[in-house]
């Protein structure tokens, strides 16, 4: 997907955000790729319909409570 438009970190968590401008009529389409300890933990998306905005200006601050739950595998 290339270089993210935004990267945010918290402990072992990381979130990359990408924006596609002109994804549809009058909105920007965003993807958030969630990482935990360097591995993809989840993906979600959101849209912005604010008039006369740019992709970068409408990137949201990450809410870490929205991060996907992390499963730990325990082996004997």
Distinct helical segment count: 0
Low-confidence stretches: none
Q: Strand order across the biggest sheet?
A: 1-2-3-4
**DSSP E strands, number:** 4
Output the helix-strand order. EEEE
Taking the sheet with the most strands, its summary is:
4 strands, antiparallel
- Silhouette: elongated
Residues in helices, as a percent range: under 10%
Distance between the termini: 37 Å
Mean pLDDT: 86
Taken as a percent bin, the fraction of beta residues is over 45%
Structural class: mainly beta
Q: Rg, please?
A: 14 Å
Layout of secondary structure:
Elements (H helix, E strand, L loop, with lengths): L5 E5 L2 E12 L2 E10 L2 E10 L28
Antiparallel strand pairs: 1-2, 2-3, 3-4
Descriptive overview:
With 76 residues, the protein is mainly beta. A four-stranded antiparallel beta sheet has the order 1-2-3-4, with no helix packed on it. The protein is elongated. Strand 3 (27-36) and strand 4 form a beta hairpin. The protein starts with 5 loop residues before the first strand and ends in a 28-residue tail after the last strand. The chain contains no helices and four strands. The relative contact order is 0.25. The mean pLDDT is 86.
List keywords for this structure.
0% helix, mainly beta, four-stranded antiparallel sheet, 76 residues
